[in-house]
Amino acid sequence: MTISSIGKADFYPPPELKNVLAATENLRAEFTMQWDGKKDMTAYRRVMENLETIQEAVTVHYKEFAVLERELVAAASSGMTEKQRMLLTWLAENHMDGVVYTVLIERLSSALNIPKSTVRWNLRGLREAGFIRAGDRENKGIPVDLTEMGRLVRDYLQIG
C-alpha cells in the first residue's frame, strides 16, 4: 500500500493531529476576517498558501506514519507464536492492575490451563519484543502492562 492509495475515507487523525489541523483552519478563518476588504491581498494570499502547505504536509506525514505503523505491526506480529497471540489478547482483555510478572504467570497458567514454564517462556518473548513492560531479575516488582506497540499489535490481531 502506498500513500497515494489511501483515500480520504482512510484518514482518521488522532486527537493531537486533529488539534493541529483545527488550528490551521482557525488561523485561516482569523486571517480572512482580519484581511476582509483590505488592499494587501498579496500578503493575505501568502499566508493562506502557507497555511494550506502546513495542512497538506501534516496530512501527508500522518498518512505515511499510519502506513508505516501498519507495516511495522504486521511484521512484528508475524513472528509471534499462537500462544503469544493468545496471551497478548488475554492481557489486553483482562485488567491486571498492579500485577507483577511472577503473579501473572500463576494467574495465566491457572486461567488458561497452560504450564507455568510455557507461560513464562511466551511472556518473556512478548517482553523482549517490546509488547509488554514487566520486571526482570534486576528490576523486580514492576507491574506488567501492555506497551503502545503491544496495544497496536493486539488491535492488528483483532482486525486481521
Folded structure, characterized:
The protein folds into two domains: 76 residues; 78 residues, Arc Repressor Mutant, subunit A. Helices cover 68% and strands 2% of the residues. The protein has six helices and two strands, in the order H-H-H-H-H-E-E-H. Helix 1 runs antiparallel to helix 2, helix 3 packs across helix 5 and helix 4 crosses helix 5. The longest helix has 38 residues.
Topology:
Layout lengths: L14 H21 L5 H38 L3 H12 L7 H12 L3 H13 L3 E2 L11 E2 L1 H12 L1
Antiparallel strand pairs: 1-2
Helix pairs in contact: 1-2, 2-6, 3-5, 3-6, 4-5
In a few lines, what is going on in this structure?
This protein has 160 residues and is mainly alpha-helical. The chain has helices at 15-35, 41-78, 82-93, 101-112, 116-128, 148-159; strands spanning 132-133, 145-146. The chain folds into 2 domains: 3-78; 82-159, Arc Repressor Mutant, subunit A, CATH 1.10.10.10.
Characteristics:
single chain; mainly alpha; Arc Repressor Mutant, subunit A; two-stranded antiparallel sheet; 6 helices; 68% helix; disordered N terminus
How many beta-strand segments? 2
**Category from helices, strands and their pairing:** mainly alpha
Task: Give the CATH superfamily of the largest domain.
Answer: Winged helix-like DNA-binding domain superfamily/Winged helix DNA-binding domain
Tell me the radius of gyration.
Answer: 23 Å
CATH architecture of the largest domain: Orthogonal Bundle
How many domains would you count in the coordinates? 2
What is the name of the CATH class of the largest domain? Mainly Alpha
**Might you state the CATH topology name of the largest domain?**
Arc Repressor Mutant, subunit A
Tally of individual helices? 6
Binned, the helix content reads: 55-70%
Mean pLDDT: 81
| Poorly predicted runs of 5 or more residues | 1-9
Separation, N- and C-terminal Cα atoms: 16 Å
Could you give the order of the helices and strands? HHHHHEEH
Spatial sequence of strands, sheet with the most strands = 1-2
